[in-house]
Structures are given as structure tokens and as C-alpha cells.
Protein: Class I SAM-dependent methyltransferase
Organism: Flavobacterium alkalisoli
Amino acid sequence: MKDLFGKAILDYQTNNNPDDIITETSISEEDEMSVAYLFRDYKQMPKIEKKALSLTKGRVLDVGCGAGSHALYLQNVKKLDVTAIDISANAVAACKLRGLNDVRAIDVLELNNEKFDTIILLMNGTGIFGKLKNCTLYLEKLKSLLNPGGQILIDSSDIIYMFDEDEDGGKWIPTDTEYYGELTFTITYKGEQEDTFDWLYIDYNTLQNAAHAHGLNCELVTEGEHFDYLAKLTLQ
């Protein structure tokens, strides 16, 4: 990986001529995203993120922290003990410059011998699973990082709305993927293109079934304005 997403974050933090990030998926055209959005404060966050932060307590793990906006709110405003992780070394460098006390460049699958009361995965937190078959791997890992009574707060979207309907109201779903929420993502930044990567959007019922299969309770906390939702997973 060229870490272009992280490079955009670090460029913005260091005023190094940041540019928009261009994203494209296997089912959508190119779209531009302002890097400034990743640096939003609490007031600018959508209601799902605000709800997740309001429920966060105890020792916290922020998985895929990006520019660190959620972790900074939890650390500085709620005064919680926060560990933030991201696979992007550039994003981690930016988070350190922003004042996060404990931020590490590490994949959550490689995090061992630590326990947390709340684990948050926001901005389509299921994305890092990549494919539906990887739910087992990630849910078991997240479960192993929970203290007794702990919780996982994770958001995603049901993207069935993005597919065309036939005359009977059925959806035209591509047959080249195991599940319609499995996408491939491409990021372009300052004319350079990142290697394509897998990204998973998962509908709530499918997440709930996966959670139950791995000894986790799953509760629908709130729904957003565009087929998105926040779920809370707890140990059974």
C-alpha cells in the first residue's frame, strides 16, 4: 500500500498543500472527498457518530482511527483512556501531531494481550473486514479484546438501495461476489493511485446473525438518514 489516504491526512495536518481524495468503487463512479471532513469536530459529526461517542466508556480502543477526530473527543472532552490504531503510518503521525496520547500503527488483528471496555469502529467500521467470510476472523479478534461487560460499537450501511430494481421490485445483484455489500475501493490522491482494496458494507440482519454465531449479542442502537446504522455488540 502507498498509504495515500494517510498521506492526505498528514498533508492536511502539516499544511502541505492538501488536495481532495478521489474515491471510486466497483459499483459507483469517482467521487471527491475533502480531507477536511476527516478533521471535523463533534458538532460536525453525523448523529450515528455522536451516539457512539456518547455510549463510549472505560478504556477505549478506536480501530481505524484515521485523522483521530473521534479519539481526540474521547480523550480531551470525555477524559477517557483511549488507544487509537490505524494501519496507516501517515495517519498515525498526524494523530500524534494532533495530540493523541496513545496512537499506534498496527492492524487490529495483530493487537494482543490488551483488554478494553469499549471498542469503536466508525465511518463504516465493517469496511476493514473486506469480505463477508472475514467476519469470523474479525469478530473473534474483537471479542478477545473485550473486558467482561465490554462493548463493541460499530457502524455500517445496507447498500441494497444502490442496485437497480426490475419490474417486480427485485434487485439486480451482481453474481461475481458472495454478498452484495462486498466492494472494491480505489483511492487516488495528487494523481497517484492506491492499490485496489476490498471493503465491506453489511446490512444489520447479516451482522446480527454473524454476531450471534460468535457468541455476541447484537443490538440496533440507532439508524441514520441514509440506510446506515449503529450496532452494539456485547458478550453473551
